[in-house]
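TL;DR need structure tokens for one chain.
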Amino acid sequence: MITLAGCGVGAKPQSSGGGDSKSSSETSPSSGESESTGPQSVAFGQSVTVKTDQGTKLKLTISAPTDFTEETDFDPEKGKYVVVDAEAALAAGVVGNVSEDEFCLVDGEGNRYEPAIASMEISGSFIELLTDKDKPVTGKIIYDVPTDAPGLTVEYSPTGVNSKTLGPLASWK
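>> reply
TL;DR here they are.
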């Protein structure tokens, strides 16, 4: 059930407005990178550094969703496939892991979409064990969404060492 926990099933969509966020973010305009001790929202393509658990920090970057045009083994059930390019690096700690199941696509109406399997080929999937500090790994995350899904956002909600969700730590809009 990591997939369900990672996508935050039952969680309310995060609001980007309002001043009630308890996040203490520091943004470096020159690098386009943000580090925070709480949930943070950044633009697609911007990097964030998040603290997961046991002192591990990950640097993550998610691109804007685009239509997935490669050949697939399975037709989309909801309408079309979209894909995001993902990058992760171990910023602090001994080891970290990142999985596409921890990234949920949310549309402007609050509908949540888990990563989809479009092909039997898994070489491009985004499930990585990070052991080399500051050495980024990349992959693609594919989602099955309605063709008219508005305002797409990607949320990162990892699962900790005790299989408990850590809640949304970052989102890209």
